[in-house]
Amino acid sequence: MNPTDPTARLPRRVVFKWMAAAAAAINLDGLPAFAGDPATGLPPLPAGTKGYGTDPKLMTSYAPGDVWPLTFTADQKRTVTALADLILPADDLGPAASELRVPDFIDEWISAPYPGQMKDRELIIPGLAWLEIESAVRFVAPFPTLTPAQQRAIIDDICSIKRATAAFEKPAFFFARFRGLASGAYYATQPGWKAIGYVGNLPQATFTGPPPEVLARLGLE
Amino acid sequence: MPIIPPSSAKPEYDVAIVGSGAGGGQMAMTLTLAGLKCVMLEAGRNYDPRSETPMFQRADQAPLLGTSTPDKVFGFYDATVDGGWQVPGEPYTQASDKFDQQFLWWRARMLGGRTNHWGRISLRNGPYDFKPRSRDGLGFDWPIAYEDVEPYYTKVEQLIGVYGTNEGMENTPDSPPGVLLPAPKGRAAELLIQKHAKKVGVPVIPIHRAVLTQRLDADNVPQKLFPGNAWAQKIVADSMNARAACFWATSCGRGCSTGANYQSTTVHLPPALATGNLDIITNAHAREVLVTAAGKAAGILFIDKTTGKEERVKAKAVVLAASSGETVRLLLNSKSAQFPNGLANSCGLVGRYIMDTVGTRVTGQIPLLENLPPHNEDGAGGDHLYSPWWLYQQQHAGKLGFARGYHIELGGSRGMPGGGDPLPDDLANGTYGSAYKLAARRYYGSFVSMACRGEMIPNDNSFAEIDPTVKDAWGIPVLRWHWLWSENELKMADHAEKTFADIIEAMGGTVRRSGTRLGIGIEQGGKIIHEVGGALMGSDPKTSVCNKWNQCWDVPNLFLSDGTPFPSNADKNPTLTIMALAWRAGDYLVEQARAGKL
Questions:
Q1: Contact (Cβ atoms closer than 8 angstroms) between residue B262 and residue B161
Q2: Structural domains of chain B, count
Q3: What is the CATH number of the domain that holds B368?
Q4: Any chain B CB within 8 A of the CB of A180?
């Protein structure tokens, strides 16, 4: 399958995989999780996956995959990349999410052997499957290969928990969490700092407080 | 740091000190500079802030973007080593299965203990705080007054370096002129809170924190701290010269490789080691205080965690500075025919009256703070401004419905981003793409938080005892905790939440989240990590464990120099008072040693 070819047809095995995950998702009552059953598309962490412990080396620079193995298949990685770039595209404020390794950070996150991250794993992996099945149902093509208008047609239905209709409520929780994880990663990078307006982490000789234009805006002169 | 193995310990020391944090560090410095030979036992590993502190590391260089995990509860870069609410191999138990009757016990297993990551907030207790029972009939008075401790507050502030201002406010003591370092200017959110809090009657002033806003005056301060002792002055001056001024970046919770803030490992232990009078044994898990046939303390029995073997150090006097929980545990585990209820416990009060701090929090979103021009607000790595308790008169007139006070710790949100979701779903409002990025930029820095840090009154239901069955990985019986907040604390937290909501509304903002996740309006016991009490000081051996010199009534060569002797826990964070009392007790111990009374 060529993910850049918008006319690519879905291989049958992919559809089956997505259907299984989506079926599991639809049957679960609990919000916000979709599914927790490894037999229905949520792969368990590799045996022996461990956290970094209570005394990790702090002076080392880490990259996703350094401490525990990652999860995403090539298909999932393409879906994550497409969705992350739709949420955080290249524009005047900064580069696209995928240029800042956001998909890798999300992969590291949902592969981590900690309770909070395991909960997100149960939301993100079935959510990605839901997104692909929705793409297949609506446009008969994988999400990454859809036109921007087609992608937006799906995302507009799930981009707000408050406004989502009942049928899209669970996917809206998935989207909100995905967006939180993607932007948590995006804004952790130096280009992300620039995009959000953070200035700092630099040694200074003095601290002079907010600049005059800020004080003026706040009525603090 | 030079560390010795147990096999290199001297046959006998003048003093054995258990614990290397604020109390143990100050005690070691005071004693060694007076010429006493000391050995310090630390349950955790050696730790060197100069080489181990991640000063400029970014969130995107850490696993999980540096966010909290059960392994590193305050985030990947938090200084804490081998610690947290749970420590592997070292369990503790709860008497109740109700979460609001449980105590969360934060421990660190590292040289310098919890001083490496603490918030550096350094507030003096005021005159009222030493005589609370005389004022409102609740709890206990201290056997000392503010005037007894004042000279030591001043000395500690000069030694560790504390920024702040003198505001002349009720029960919020000024320091003598020239003692405090210059206070940093407020950040945008702090200044905005200051302006609008005034409308609801809440004063906001510079906080006091142990951060060097300028270098210490090594040419003059050591002479004031150690008059007539040129040798001590030289050592302390060298130590002061090794500390840089703050460079206005990096959260203090990571520790500080340049020594610009106080931690025992950069301020107390280097000069103590430079005397040549201090040996430190790390990975030394204290089990019990050794006692002579005459009933005096003779040293410490401990487990060398690197070998699992029992070891002993002997000393003419013993100082316990292991934290309220661990000091209580050591005393209660030091049972013998002479001391069947545990050491120093003839009054039966060891473990009783443990206190934490009343904690709750409100966050708000402030439209005025949206879309501010980007500017650097890293500042001193912690709070610049705060609100001291301000309602003494109204309380005295019976208008509040609860006793004692709280202070407010203020927080803005222009800190280094990373890991957290910058924009909750309701504010993202369905956006994605460039519209979302604009919204994230708009709301960044527009959130404020206010945290209540209030005084808990000691009660009969909050204490620690030895669990009859559970032991740790080394076979040492563990603590079992009992906890109950009283109505007084719950009413205080309620008052704080209402006040914070009023301030947020006065700023034109909206409350985002109020109270704790517990749903009982107050943080769980222990959560604020201000555990004090458990071996109260007093003026009567029948009703207290130690005297006004932190000296145990039953065992005169045994001193407690952590928070255990506190008869009350004022809203002022306890660390500065722990250090002041440790220095004071250390001077007394030196006098006793010189008089041959140990």
A1: yes
A2: 1
A3: 3.30.410
A4: yes
